Amino acid sequence: MTRAPETGAELLERRRIFSDRLAVDSGGHLAIAGISAADLVARFGSPLIVSVEDTIATNYERLLAAFRKRWKGDVQVLYSLKCNNNLAIRALLSRLGAGGDCFGDAELRATLDMGTNPAHVALNGSDKTPDQIARAMESGVTINIDGIDELCFIEAVHRRTGLLAKTNLRLKILPDALNQVMRGSGLKHGAGVESVRRAKWGFTEGTALPILQALLVSHAVKMTGFSCHIGHLSTDPLAFRSIADAFGRAVTRLSLATGFVPLVLDIGGGWAREREPEQRADDVQITPIEAQVEAAVAALEAALAPLAARPTLWVEPGRYIVGNAQVLLAGVGAVKTDAGLRWVHVDASTNNLQRIETGGFVHDILPASRMHDDMDHVTQVVGGTCFRSVIAADRSLPALQRHDLIAVLDAGMYAEVFANQFNGVPRPAGVLVCRDGSVELIRAAETYQDIFACHIVPARFAPVPEE
Ligand SMILES: Cc1ncc(COP(=O)(O)O)c(C=O)c1O
User: Fold this and answer.
1) Least confidently predicted of 79-83, 151-155, 270-274, 433-437
2) Which CATH architecture has domain 71-317?
C-alpha cells in the first residue's frame, strides 16, 4: 500500500522538538515565532538567517535546570562561542547569565565584550599564545591548561604584573566504552579510543600528574580544577555516563595523589539535541537532555565519592543551545528537470551550510511557502554555486517554483561560523525574532565590497582607465 504524500505541515509536526517556535499561518506559510517567513524575506531579503530569542532562552534554561536539579553543588553553563559566534546571541546569553567557553583571542574578546562574567569564562586551546594567556589573566578568566608552555607564559605575566592565573587542567580520558559508543560515527569497532587518543587535546593521567604538581607549586597559579571535553560522539546515554565516570575517576586519583581538592570541574560540551542533522538520518531516537544529564551526573558523583568534595560543575554546550534556534530561509530560483531528476535551485548554498559538505549533515527542509501542499516531487535542492552544492538529495517536496521559499531547520550550529564566500557570494543577513514579537537585524548582509575588502592590488597591476 502506498502512503499518501506528507505535507510540510505534517512533516513539521512529526519532526518538531520542544523549543521550536514554528507554525503554519492561515495562508499556508511557515511562521517563525509568529512572523511569516514570507514577510521576513520581503523585509530583509533572501537568503536570511532567522534566529529565535525564545528558542535560545528555552534551550539554555532547560539545560541549566537539568543540571541544577541533579548536581548537588553549583552549576554554570558556559556557552561555547565557536558553535555560533553571532554577537547578539552571545550578548543575549550573557543577559540570561550564561558564562562562556572560548578558543583563541577573538572568541575571548568577543565573549568578554558581550558582557559575560569573567568568573564564568574558560579559555580553551592546545596552543595558546603568550598574548592570549596575558589577556586571560588580566581579565580574570580561567585557563584550561592544555600545554606545558602555558605555565611559562603564566609565570612571565605574573613576574610582570603580579597577577595570578586561575587554571583547570584539561584531561584526556580513554574509557573502553568509547569503542562501543562511537561505532555510530562511522568508525570501525574498536576505533573510538584510538580516535580520541589521536586527538591533540588534554593530558592522559600519567602525563597530567607532574603538570598538576608543577601548577600546584607555582606562585603564579591559583589551581581551580580540571576540564575535559570529548565532543559529540554519540547520543547514547552510555557515552555521557562513561565519559563522566572516567573523568571523575581520573580527577579523584589525581586529587588523592596531590592533596589538591578541585573547586571546579568542567565537563565540556557535546550535549545532544532531540533533532540533529549530524545524525545523518531522521529516524534516530535521541534521549532527552535530562536523561543525558542523569547518566553523567550519577557517574560523576559516584566516581568522586572518595573526595568528599562538591566542586562547581561547568558545562560547555554549543549545539544544544543554538542548534534549532536558527532557520535558514532561501528563495527558489531556477527549476530544471532532466535525466530523471528535478533540481530546485535556491539562493543559499552549501556555502552557508558547510557541514553538509564536510560532515554529511542531513537537515530537515520545509516548503515554507506551501506548507499544505503534498510533498510528492522527489527533489534535488541545490545552491547556485559551481560546487555541486547539494543541500538535500532526493527529498520529497511540493512542486516548488521560482519565488517559493524553503526553510532549512537546525541551521544554528557550526553553520555561520564555517560559512564562506565561494564564487564571491556574499554571506546573508541575520535577524532575531524577539520574545516581544519584534524583529531586529543582528547581522548585515555582506556586499560585493565586503567580499574583496581585505584584498590589495599592487599599484603596478592596477587597471589603467581607458582614455
Ligand atoms: C572545548 C569545547 N567545549 C565545548 C564545545 C562545544 O561542543 P558542542 O557544540 O558539541 O556542545 C567544543 C566543541 O568542539 C569544544 O571544543
Assistant:
1) 270-274
2) Alpha-Beta Barrel (3.20)
Q: Residues enclosing ligand 1, CB less than 6 A?
A: 80, 82-83, 101, 124, 229, 231-232, 268-271, 316-320
Query: Which pLDDT value is given to residue 179?
Result: 87
Nearest to 391 by CA among 365, 418, 369, 371: 365
Cβ neighbours of residue 55 closer than 8 Å, sequence gap 6 or more: 19, 20, 21, 33, 324, 325
* Nearest CA-CA partner of 91 in 69, 113, 75: 113
Mutate to test the pocket of ligand 1, among 56, 59, 83 (most ligand atoms within 8 A of CB): 83
CA of 103 to the centre of ligand 1 (A): 10
Residue among 82, 111, 234 whose CB has most ligand 1 atoms within 8 A, to mutate: 82
Q: Which atom of ligand 1 is nearest to the CA of 320?
A: 11
Tell me the per-residue pLDDT of 22-48, one tens digit each, with 9 for 90 and over: 999 999 999 999 999 999 999 999 999
Q: What topology is assigned to 8-52+333-445 in CATH?
A: Lyase, Ornithine Decarboxylase; Chain A, domain 1 (2.40.37)
pLDDT band for position 120 (cuts 50, 70, 90): very high
CA-closest candidate to residue 332, choices 289, 275, 391: 391
Q: Quote the CA–CA distance of 396 and 379 in Å, as a whole number.
A: 6
Q: Cell match 556555502: residue?
A: 351
Task: Enumerate the domain spans of the chain.
Answer: 8-52+333-445, 71-317
3-state secondary structure of 28: coil
Ligand 1 site-directed mutation target among 80, 170, 326, most atoms within 8 Å of CB: 80
Query: Which parts of 11-74 are beta strand (E)?
Result: 22-24, 30-32, 35-36, 48-52
Q: Look at the pTM and tell me if it is higher than 0.85.
A: yes
